[in-house]
Specification:
Elements lengths: L2 H11 L18 H6 L3 H5 L3 E3 L2 E6 L4 E4 L11 H19 L1
Amino acid sequence: MDANDDKGSSFSSSIVCCQGDNCTADLTDAKKYHRRHKVCEFHAKAPVVIVSGIQQRFCQQCSKFHELPEFDDMKRSCRRRLAGHNERRRRTTSEGSS
């Protein structure tokens, strides 16, 4: 057995699955983004996901699950990250118009 065979077998033995409670999605063939953050495409876009028994939503800015009160309405980015994003946009616009 050469080194490549050893790497391949150890990689395939670790099954990556979604963090959503009771989600059976196998992320082995999913996009790299979904594998890295351990979230299936469905739960990445879902407005409510149960994770560790708590209602949460996946933040597309943080790439993490947050509890629902951290989001405005149905937005997919948490309030804290949106505030930083909006601040940077305001700064860029005001600098450009000066």
